[in-house]
């Protein structure tokens, strides 16, 4: 009997031990064996990470800070993390395709986390998902505490809770997860903040301190007001702000490339803030520290070199992205205002990257195209012109290169066919946007119609395509790999170096 009791006790102890979940800095460490136990929490945010991932390392202290804030608030929301490189079954189950991936579980059901990466952003998003859309401020003390604890707070001063304006405010509060919303009809709170009944005020711990909404009372207008006013007049670009910059409704951005080491921020940013006030909700002003190595790729994207700093550009993030360059490298207040106004008036021409045209561009069987000679060659109505749009670092482009050379050699004596290539990372065309590398397009003689080549990248496949005037791809085409334009092909770059 004693052995049975002892065995039972050991089993119970093992079960208790098995159900315990280890914590690191307030964050639950989750594995396949304890994951279901963790989901018994009504609310839990789970980060799937990789130990080697730079973005995961940057998130870690903010994630732990968020866990601490929630604990101090005595929130029932938990934070957990999964090493997806060790727990591959969990990563596959929840379709983790990149790091970090965050998923929010409500009673075991997951939704994608789409909030920011700073502790305050994480907490704000979670509180909005687990509590009322707008917190009731029933005293000055409650209001002061909320404003003190948050960089941005949106307050609706409404005595009539049945009005259409209040309903529009509440709809916007439900739709915006990044910032806390509050409501009040308390007379002391209205007096303290010199507010009027029926108004919406965005309080912020930077720039002007607050902004009063004076637009049309509908969800879209209130959301746009919040998203523009909650951002600094000049937003400093970094890992934390990038998501809000690119994810907001304002798709036109003035980018100021500056050097902190050279004192450019002190010299230019304050003046830019004054100009930014006049263009809020139309264009977002962004500062980029060109001294940071991580920002070299941005300079490359705009075809800029460090000796061109300080400088500015405008980018329009619509379906067809467009970039604009000022005539002079002048960042005075007048120059910035003039540049932005001309953009908004539609008076600027797109700035397209282009290399210098090599003197021997047509010496070899594969002709070299740049932006300036592209139209002249590709739209020659007497010839079929096959163009490969490539990236120097793309491994698939490197694999195609010898085959493409063979193709050009084969057709070099055919006056009706031209084989050409263009480095699409440093040459841009207004009429053609490249989505992946390599991309092959045939510009047909006669009507200059364009046919994409989607066949097998072999000498035979490409030859058939040309000989049929773009009507025939290779038979039995296998899956053809391409590299998206914005993918960082690290392996290829290392090979190149």
Automatic annotation (TrEMBL):
<feature type="compositionally biased region" description="Acidic residues">
    <location>
        <begin position="479"/>
        <end position="490"/>
    </location>
</feature>
<keyword id="KW-0413">Isomerase</keyword>
<protein>
    <recommendedName>
        <fullName>Protein disulfide-isomerase</fullName>
        <ecNumber>5.3.4.1</ecNumber>
    </recommendedName>
</protein>
<dbReference type="InterPro" id="IPR036249">
    <property type="entry name" value="Thioredoxin-like_sf"/>
</dbReference>
<dbReference type="GO" id="GO:0006457">
    <property type="term" value="P:protein folding"/>
</dbReference>
<dbReference type="GO" id="GO:0034976">
    <property type="term" value="P:response to endoplasmic reticulum stress"/>
</dbReference>
<feature type="domain" description="Thioredoxin">
    <location>
        <begin position="330"/>
        <end position="471"/>
    </location>
</feature>
<dbReference type="InterPro" id="IPR017937">
    <property type="entry name" value="Thioredoxin_CS"/>
</dbReference>
<dbReference type="InterPro" id="IPR013766">
    <property type="entry name" value="Thioredoxin_domain"/>
</dbReference>
<feature type="disulfide bond" description="Redox-active">
    <location>
        <begin position="394"/>
        <end position="397"/>
    </location>
</feature>
<dbReference type="InterPro" id="IPR005788">
    <property type="entry name" value="PDI_thioredoxin-like_dom"/>
</dbReference>
<dbReference type="GO" id="GO:0003756">
    <property type="term" value="F:protein disulfide isomerase activity"/>
</dbReference>
<dbReference type="Pfam" id="PF00085">
    <property type="entry name" value="Thioredoxin"/>
</dbReference>
<feature type="signal peptide">
    <location>
        <begin position="1"/>
        <end position="18"/>
    </location>
</feature>
<dbReference type="Pfam" id="PF13848">
    <property type="entry name" value="Thioredoxin_6"/>
</dbReference>
<comment type="similarity">
    <text>Belongs to the protein disulfide isomerase family.</text>
</comment>
<keyword id="KW-0676">Redox-active center</keyword>
<keyword id="KW-1015">Disulfide bond</keyword>
<keyword id="KW-0677">Repeat</keyword>
<keyword id="KW-0732">Signal</keyword>
<feature type="disulfide bond" description="Redox-active">
    <location>
        <begin position="53"/>
        <end position="56"/>
    </location>
</feature>
<dbReference type="GO" id="GO:0005788">
    <property type="term" value="C:endoplasmic reticulum lumen"/>
</dbReference>
<keyword id="KW-0256">Endoplasmic reticulum</keyword>
<feature type="domain" description="Thioredoxin">
    <location>
        <begin position="10"/>
        <end position="131"/>
    </location>
</feature>
<feature type="region of interest" description="Disordered">
    <location>
        <begin position="473"/>
        <end position="497"/>
    </location>
</feature>
<dbReference type="InterPro" id="IPR005792">
    <property type="entry name" value="Prot_disulphide_isomerase"/>
</dbReference>
């Amino acid at each position: 009997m004693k052995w049975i009791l002892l065995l039972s006790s050991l089993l119970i102890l093992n079960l208790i031990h098995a159900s315990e979940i280890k914590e690191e800095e307030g964050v639950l460490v989750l594995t396949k064996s304890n994951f279901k136990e963790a989901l018994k929490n009504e609310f839990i945010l789970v980060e799937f990470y990789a130990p080697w991932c730079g973005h995961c390392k940057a998130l870690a202290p903010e994630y732990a800070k968020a866990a601490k804030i929630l604990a101090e608030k005595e929130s029932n929301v938990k934070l957990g993390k999964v090493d997806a490189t060790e727990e591959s079954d969990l990563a596959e189950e929840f379709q983790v395709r990149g790091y970090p991936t965050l998923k929010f579980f409500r009673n075991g059901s997951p939704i994608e986390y789409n909030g920011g990466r700073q502790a305050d952003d994480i907490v704000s998003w979670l509180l909005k998902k687990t509590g009322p859309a707008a917190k009731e401020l029933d005293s000055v003390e409650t209001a002061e505490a909320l404003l003190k604890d948050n960089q941005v707070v949106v307050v609706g001063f409404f005595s009539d809770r049945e009005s259409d304006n209040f309903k529009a405010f509440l709809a916007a509060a439900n739709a915006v997860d990044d910032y806390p919303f509050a409501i009040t009809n308390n007379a002391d709170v209205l007096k303290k903040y010199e507010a009027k009944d029926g108004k919406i005020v965005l309080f912020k711990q930077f720039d002007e301190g607050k902004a009063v909404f004076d637009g049309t009372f509908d969800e879209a207008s209130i959301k746009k007001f919040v998203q523009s006013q909650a951002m600094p007049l000049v937003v400093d670009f970094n890992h934390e702000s990038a998501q809000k910059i690119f994810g907001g409704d304002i798709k036109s951005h003035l980018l100021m490339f500056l050097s902190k080491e050279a004192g450019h921020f002190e010299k230019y940013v304050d003046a830019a803030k004054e100009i930014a006030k006049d263009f809020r909700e139309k264009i977002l002003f962004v500062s980029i520290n060109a001294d940071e190595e991580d920002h070299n790729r941005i300079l490359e994207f705009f075809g800029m070199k460090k000796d061109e700093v300080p400088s500015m550009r405008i980018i329009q993030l619509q379906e067809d992205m467009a970039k604009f360059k000022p005539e002079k490298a002048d960042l005075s207040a007048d120059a910035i205002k003039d540049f932005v106004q001309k953009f908004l008036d539609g008076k600027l021409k797109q700035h397209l990257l282009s290399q210098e045209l090599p003197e021997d561009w047509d010496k070899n069987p594969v002709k070299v195209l740049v932006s300036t000679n592209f139209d002249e060659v590709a739209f020659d109505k007497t010839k079929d012109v096959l163009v490969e749009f490539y990236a120097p670092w793309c491994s698939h482009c490197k694999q195609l290169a010898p085959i493409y050379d063979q193709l050009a050699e084969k057709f070099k004596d055919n006056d009706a066919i031209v084989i050409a290539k263009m480095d699409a990372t440093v040459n841009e065309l207004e009429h053609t946007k490249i989505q992946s590398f390599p991309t092959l397009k045939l510009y047909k003689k006669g009507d200059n119609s364009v046919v994409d080549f989607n066949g097998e990248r072999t000498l035979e496949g490409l030859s058939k395509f040309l000989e049929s005037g773009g009507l025939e791809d290779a038979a039995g085409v296998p899956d053809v790999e391409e590299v998206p334009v914005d993918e960082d092909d690290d392996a290829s770059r290392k090979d190149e170096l």
